[in-house]
Amino acid sequence: MKFLKSTLVLFVLSISHQCLAQDSTAFFILTQEDIRNNNITNLEEALKLPAFHQYYFKNVSTTSSGILSMSNIAIYKDDRPLLLDQNTGYDLRAIPTWDIDRIEVHFAPTSTIVKNSSAIVVKLISVPIIEEPFSLSATIANTSASDFHISTQVSLSNKVHTGKIGLNRSFETAFYADPEDRGTAISALERYDLNFIYKYKILRIVDLTIGGDNSVLKTQNRGELIDGTTRVRDINQDLRKHALFGTISSALSKNHTLSLNGLIHRYKNDLITLDKDLSNAKEQQFNGPSSIFSTSYDQGYMQLLLVAKNQILNYTIGLEINNIKDNQFPSIKAIASEYSDYSVLGLFEYQLKNSFKLEGGTKILTNSLTGTYFMPQAKLTLAPNKDLQFVGSFHKSISYPRFGDIFYPSEMRDGIENSLLLKPTDINTFNFKVVVQKKNIRLQSGILFIDQTKTPQPTRFNTIENSGESRSTSTYASLVLGNKIWNIRPSIIIHGTNYLRDTSRLTFFYPEANIYAQLQVPQTKLSFNTSSRFVGSRTYSYFYEGVIHIEEQEKFNNVSLSVSYLFNRNRLKIYFGINNLRNVNFIASNTYQLYDIDREQIGERRITANKNRSFFFKASFQL
Fold this sequence. Notes:
This protein has about 625 residues and is mainly beta. It contains 4 helices and 39 strands. The protein has a 22-stranded antiparallel beta barrel. A hairpin with a 3-residue loop joins strand 24 and strand 25. The longest helix has 8 residues, at about 5-10.
């Protein structure tokens, strides 16, 4: 499949997606000020968001939401697929947030941009280009842990030609598993970013946009001393990602717009395991059974959309083509490690006055490995009055299995055989909510129901098959309350998860509560900010070697505070804050085997919930 080459030709004929039929009421929005007030520098740190659970073990972060892992959650930046396909794996630290205006968390949004998984969607929206002849912004941050971040963006515009380029350098120190040992719980990292975008108004009705996101990330995971020796085992990482995208759109009439989107994305993550002898400083590359394999992928993506905006009936129809190719292992046992998918989509929206809105449509997707899938979606909104809405939606989507589960041989996967016949996971999502909105208050509360079938599961014969089923419910409520002086945004979720619905009736519940608050001192340019997060004890189950295992993780919390002040005619803003005020870092995680109604503890470990408490200073300048 040579789709990547053809996409290179077509990438300048691309679009800004027209997100007509999407749910505009995101469950949670992390604003640019939230990002700065909490000194968030990458997506991994940002995904400590309401609805998400995250922890670290041996320098690897695990992020999930209910029964959904990151391989089941779609992430987009400016309506472009950000994580290739979710199944390829990605280091979230390589996605910076210094150029992000806001991050939105959506439950089952109706939208043309959802490629596969659509139960929970995270959208990153870039800082808009300032359409002035010249604009300059810069940010610098330093912490008591010796972290250092600096970024700058320059914009130029004459209304016809508009451009922006940004540079960033980030350094974060290591967090050690034990102060008396050299082993790192979270490795040090250094990342360089170069992002650019150029917009050209060719005609009054024709717009062209091209741009790119590029990052280079280097880390070193330092290992502990191997018992009885002077040797250690370190892992050096050199990650490079490059995305080149383009957009073109044209108004065909007063109510119709035709647009085309193209994207080329290359991701290469080199991981080298080094065996070192600290007594003589000698080192050599280690290629044993416990070594970690590098990954490298190419993606080509294109979407053509026709959007119609009428007073009563709106519609969007389009085509979508996607190709993912493994460059690190281009073939396994003479089988090419790549696949393509082709989609036809149609979404329709009918609105009767201001009280009734019906949205629906479908996407028909054909995958080159596994066949054709029909993915309908529907949403009904009732508004008895201007302050109240009732919303119900249904989505059917799929999530592709990991490349390793399909292609890689057992010696690369702890003895588990791959399966070329493995099917995608089916995800059926129902979301029901009520929204109340008045002058200074916005409240939404509802329940999110997710049902997964055909989940890849290892069997006792060291094979993998589509035998798993799981189900979750998330009962949620969020509130936005405030005015020009103060703002408070609390949210609470109770997750109910059943990971092994096909094997057991075990349902586990864990709660979480979040509060974001800002206070602008009247008649001054001083503001105070706080964010607090409390996650209850989390339990989940999995099937291994014919036995049900249960993992129990302790509750934890994270509280951050900051203060900011505007100087120099609102051009300079100074921040001072503290992350992880209560210094909660390591928590216990215990593993049990389940036998009928009895269970036996077979393991315990420490996992990392947060880095150590640290103070930060940040300055942001706008010219």
